[in-house]
Specification:
The chain has 295 residues and is of the alpha+beta class. The protein has 2 domains: 95 residues, no CATH class; 190 residues, q2cbj1_9rhob like domain (Jelly Rolls), CATH 2.60.120. Strands 1-9-5-12-3-2 form a 6-stranded antiparallel sheet, with helices on one face. A hairpin with a 4-residue loop joins strand 7 and strand 8. It is globular. The site of 2-oxoglutaric acid has 9 residues, from strand 10 and strand 12.
Length: 295
């Protein structure tokens, strides 16, 4: 009896591990198929690029060649072949797209949401409020205190020091955003891919809360000396209500409304009016970059 009981338990455990193994195998096979599809797509869009990123038989990706090519284009390769392949496909698709109507664009899932979710506890732990004086011409004056700075190049008062823990936590993400912004910008302006580089003037994480003075950012442009901006929606510990991003763009001017999900990036050309609407509940987190075109 005891033998048959432990035999049954053994069989159950075996069946369980076999199930996990099969799921894992299926997941890997799905990924392989997605990678193969991405390769075929690149081949159909641009044979020359497919040749550069492929293996010797030009039959699939060479991880090394793909990484090398991405670096050449100013992109940061990751450890994840599917992610890099997907990024390349979207860049090629973008560069073939119709002429841009707007000087801003929401790129959905620009940064992997699960990756951001994993980083989120560290983002929270690294976050400190660093009061900043936006100057007497700003409606915020010295009352802005819901951002934590990673890069500070402007002569702000009082001088803010970059908060190293936040930079360590989100530095790579920031570089991914810059690389994607550069690719987007070249497409927007019709420049050769890789020909324009941006440096980060200011980078900060803002946490909005549903209290007066912390719940919104009123309509503004990011400064006459800012050549481009990125807003990356971050995860949150408490889902929020409100908090849409409004952007005024186009000819004639239109007001566009975006409800961003974690991982979505808003790219904006210089001097685009925008506004973060108030939240009425929860907390909203965003990573914001002000960029300078390198001469
Ligand atoms: O939080 C947002 O969505 C907008 C942030 C922004 O525009 C800024 O900080 O300049
Ligand atoms: Fe802004």
């Amino acid at each position: 009896m005891a033998v048959s009981h432990s035999l049954r338990l053994g069989l159950l455990a075996l069946a369980g591990s076999a199930g996990i193994f099969l799921c894992w195998k299926r997941y890997l096979a799905q990924r392989d198929r997605a990678i193969a599809r991405a390769f075929q797509k690149i081949k159909s869009m641009n044979k020359a690029i497919a040749l550069v990123v492929s293996d010797a038989r030009n039959a699939s990706f060479s991880r090394r060649n793909l990484s090398k090519y991405m670096v050449q284009r100013g992109l940061c390769p990751s450890e994840d072949l599917l992610r890099d392949a997907t990024l390349l496909v979207s860049l090629l698709e973008e560069s073939r797209g119709p002429p841009a109507k707007f000087a801003h664009e929401l790129k959905q899932a620009a940064i992997d949401a699960e990756h951001l979710q994993r980083l989120f506890p560290e983002i929270q732990a690294s976050y400190v409020q660093q009061p900043l004086d936006y100057g007497r011409n700003s409606r915020y004056g010295d009352n802005w205190r819901i951002s934590c700075y990673m890069v500070v190049m402007e002569n702000w008062k009082p001088k803010i020091m970059p908060h190293e823990p936040m930079l360590r936590c989100l530095g790579d993400t920031m570089q991914h955003c810059v690389a994607q912004f550069e690719a987007w910008y070249c497409t927007l302006k019709g420049f050769r891919q890789g020909s324009k580089r941006f440096s980060v003037m200011n980078a900060f994480v803002t946490r909005y809360r549903p209290v007066h003075g912390e719940d919104e950012l009123q309509k503004h442009i990011d400064g006459a000396n800012v050549d481009g901006s990125v807003i990356l929606a971050l995860p949150t510990e408490e889902p929020f209500e409100g908090g849409a991003l409004h952007v005024w763009d186009g000819k004639p001017k239109q007001e566009l409304v975006y409800q961003m999900a974690p991982g979505d990036c808003m790219f904006m050309d210089t001097k685009i009016w925008h506004q973060a609407k108030p939240i009425s509940k929860g907390a909203r987190w965003a990573l914001v970059l002000f960029l300078k075109l390198e001469k």
